[in-house]
Amino acid sequence: MNDYRSVRVALLGGGTVGANVAKILLEHADELAARVGARLELTGIAVRNLSAKRPVDLPASLFTTDAHELILGADIVIEVMGGIEPAREYILEALGSGADVVTANKALLANHGPELFAAAERVGAQVYYEAAVAGAIPIIRPLRESLAGDRVERVMGIVNGTTNYILDRMDSEKDSFDSALAMATELGYAEADPTADVDAFDAAQKVAILAGLAFHTHVPLETVYREGIRGISAEVVELARYAGFVIKLLAIAERVTDATTGRESISARVYPALIPREHPLASVRKANNAVFVQSEAAGSLMFYGAGAGGPETASAIMGDVVSAARRHIMGGPGLGESQHADLPVIPINDIETSYHVVLRVADQPGVLATVASVFHEYNVSVELVEQGVFTPQTGPASKRATTTLVIGTHEARESDLAATVTALSKLPVVDSVVSVLRVEGA
Ligand code: HSE
What we know:
35% of the residues lie in helices and 26% in strands. It contains 14 helices and 17 strands. Strand 5 (100-103), helix 5 and strand 6 form a beta-alpha-beta unit. The strands form two sheets. Strands 7, 8, 9, 10, 11, 12, 13, 14, 15, 16 and 17 form an eleven-stranded mixed beta sheet that branches.
């Protein structure tokens, strides 16, 4: 094995993912050398605190607090520290010195992707980021390479394990949101401050990355529509179950073609939505992730597995390291980002989906007609109406006899539906709007 050349690999970050990457590099060194055609020499692990406890036993001599020195001597720099700074500074430094970069940093890519990609292109290096979206699941490479000759129409995924765990518990155990969140925290899925997951910031970053790859367009994070799951109560989950749906936090990137002009744009959005129980994404349980891709020639593809975790994320990182090392010894420039399509991202108001609107209304003659006339007034076509199928246990007490109306719509513009719901909420016969959810995958 000694006749192999060597590729110097610097690791920035020694947390759960970093320690597992180091473990694989050390334990499988011979096998990796045979696959790559060069030895992957782990030159060091840059950390903030040398005495912090590590999830894996690693030689103390590998650790350093001097990231700059490590970066200078590296052919490949792996960044698994997270956060924007100093990760951004270190990555730019690595690319500036001609090293390839492997990162799991979705926040950095979603906010500063173009800057990093431009820096890579200037020197013929490459930024690899399979681990940034959906952990162990190969989805970046399939979109970037396997489907590069096809036309992707839609990417719909469960890309946040914490919220999937919470929603799954609310569905299968009939837990409240608070109790499911507490369990997610206890199991280590949710952070002490669960905002990034629960309010869908994490999923929005991931869908910005996926949309950019799928549609060969830069998708700024601020153009991604984002709604989290705090408004999903046990009652709303039960209503969904009753109607044959399950609620999932869906990250959607979609090609939208204007029927009149034929002009194309894209939509990137994340929100909790109803999906039919028989849809492949409905069976994604616990903290797992899955991404459902529809493309012109390939049809429907589903990628499923662990979206987080030390060893799982390390697997995705190591796939990138092997690719980068192979290219390093073969020579040739890195694969740049393909953004030639440069499609506009349309706002949520212009999106068309179907909805389920649940109302608590006065149980008296003429109410159905009054409610239906509001949908008509705002150009929203009603597909189904069910009355009295479910009695909400929460919400304001009513002095009159009430019943529940579940109204399913055909596809309607988001802005028209929003206007409909505002008008409905002002009707004297409507006690409360129990829920408004989009339907996907039906
Ligand atoms: N917090 C994320 C999740 C994992 O719950 O899926 C890292 O992206």
